[in-house]
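Page 42, continued from yesterday. The earlier attempt failed because a stray header line got pasted into the input along with the sequence. Redoing it now with the clean sequence only.
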Amino acid sequence: QVQLVESGGGLVQAGGSLRLSCAASGSIFSIRAMGWYRQAPGKQREFVATISRGGSTNYADSVKGRFTASRDNAKNTVYLQMNSLKPEDTAVYYCNVEGVMVTLQTFGVWGQGAQVTVSS
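This time it went through. Structure tokens are written below.
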């Protein structure tokens, strides 16, 4: 089994910053991609950012230049630094981790979600 624990959400004023963390634990052999998605009220979950094991990143156009994904492979942790936050960034943010378990089975798991609220 693999578990994810997210932390770092909260309430911030427009223009402010927040940092999300997502730590994976359990029977992990290796982690491939780690990513972030978000879901605003009444909307579908959408892609925010991904980061490969080697550190290559991809971002949604809406967050490019403001959000930065990073990871600590030794700690099986992924981060999302969010700067210049806008009210439209308000959503529940979910991390997603894909990899291989010690049994050599592949896995893909979601975090429990972290609420980010940006006030205008």
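Notes: The radius of gyration is 14 Å.
Reminder to self: strip header lines before submitting.
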